[in-house]
């Protein structure tokens, strides 16, 4: 009769070698039970984490927008790429801020989370002039020559027109690099109220010579501005002060034929203005 023996192999008294056979008992059952418990716990933990990930506790409930003047709240939200219900870690403050700064209308932006509310503050660029483009369309430019968009002349707020500068193709956000255009924009930037309200058009010649057309029909010869930045600023401010003083003395009946010459620094020459 052969025996089943737990332990090492033994040689029996009759010379027959018997081998040990491991016994399957409570130890292996406990191991399987332990691994099953760990697996179930891991699955439960994963379900809980997924539920927390999708929970309303971490979702965007409302958006507070401030600082916008020309952009509507809907436009700011569209640029930011956010909407109620978004998960907080999918619309981080820095990611939203970079989206806003990518739009040419937005000069600076601040974005913070306050609980489940996203607070957005923007500073918009100021449109300064319209540039004749293709057909009836005009480019909307800021003081740096950045293209903010395009529109028809009769649309939106009234802005002075820059003519004489040809642009074949321009995209939103492009900064136009034309010296004559930069001269015109510099002049417009220094032109304050009430003169800016009277300014209808700035014509730029190929040699960067500037001529102004006022709404009443008065023409103003500005000429070529100095290249030096400091001299240019002084020249513009001095001549504009003289122009305002001269316009105050021009009767309304004479504005249609009045011609003013600002080409000589420190002098304002007028013809047909009485």
UniProtKB/TrEMBL annotation:
Q: Which residue ranges run through the membrane?
A: 35-53
Matching entries from Pfam families are given as: FtsQ_DivIB_C, POTRA_1
Indicate where this protein resides in the cell.
Membrane
Q: Where is the POTRA domain?
A: 58-125
On the tree of life, the source organism's domain of life is Bacteria
Q: What is its main location?
A: membrane
GO CC annotations, alphabetized: membrane
Q: Which GO terms describe its biological process?
A: cell septum assembly
Matching entries from InterPro entries are given as: Cell_div_FtsQ/DivIB_C, FtsQ, POTRA, POTRA_FtsQ_type
UniProtKB keywords: Cell cycle, Cell division, Cell inner membrane, Cell membrane, Membrane, Transmembrane, Transmembrane helix
Protein name as catalogued: Putative cell division protein
Q: What taxonomic ancestry is recorded? A: Bacteria, Bacillati, Bacillota, Clostridia, Eubacteriales
């Amino acid at each position: 009769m052969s025996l089943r023996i737990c332990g090492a192999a033994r040689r029996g008294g009759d010379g027959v070698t018997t081998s040990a056979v491991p016994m399957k008992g409570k130890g292996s059952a406990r191991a399987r039970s332990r691994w099953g418990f760990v697996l179930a716990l891991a699955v439960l933990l994963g379900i809980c984490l997924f539920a927390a990930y999708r929970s309303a506790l971490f979702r965007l409930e409302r958006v507070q927008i401030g600082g916008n003047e020309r952009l509507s709240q809907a436009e700011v939200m569209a640029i930011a790429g956010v909407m109620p219900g978004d998960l907080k870690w999918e619309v981080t403050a820095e990611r939203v801020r970079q989206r806003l700064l990518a739009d040419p209308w937005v000069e600076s932006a601040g974005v913070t989370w306050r609980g489940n509310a996203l607070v957005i503050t923007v500073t918009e660029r100021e449109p300064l002039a319209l540039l004749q483009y293709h057909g009836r369309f005009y480019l909307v430019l800021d003081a740096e020559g950045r293209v903010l968009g395009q529109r028809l002349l009769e649309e939106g707020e009234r802005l002075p027109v820059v003519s004489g500068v040809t642009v074949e193709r321009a995209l939103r956000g492009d900064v136009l690099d034309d010296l004559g255009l930069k001269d015109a924009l510099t002049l417009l930037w220094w032109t304050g109220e009430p003169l800016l309200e009277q300014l209808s058009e700035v014509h730029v010649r190929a040699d960067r010579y500037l001529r102004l057309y006022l709404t009443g029909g008065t023409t103003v010869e500005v000429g070529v501005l100095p290249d030096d930045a400091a001299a240019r600023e002084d020249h513009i401010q001095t001549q504009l002060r003289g122009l305002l003083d001269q316009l105050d003395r021009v009767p309304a009946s004479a504005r249609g034929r009045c011609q003013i010459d600002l080409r000589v620094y420190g002098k304002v020459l007028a013809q047909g203005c009485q």
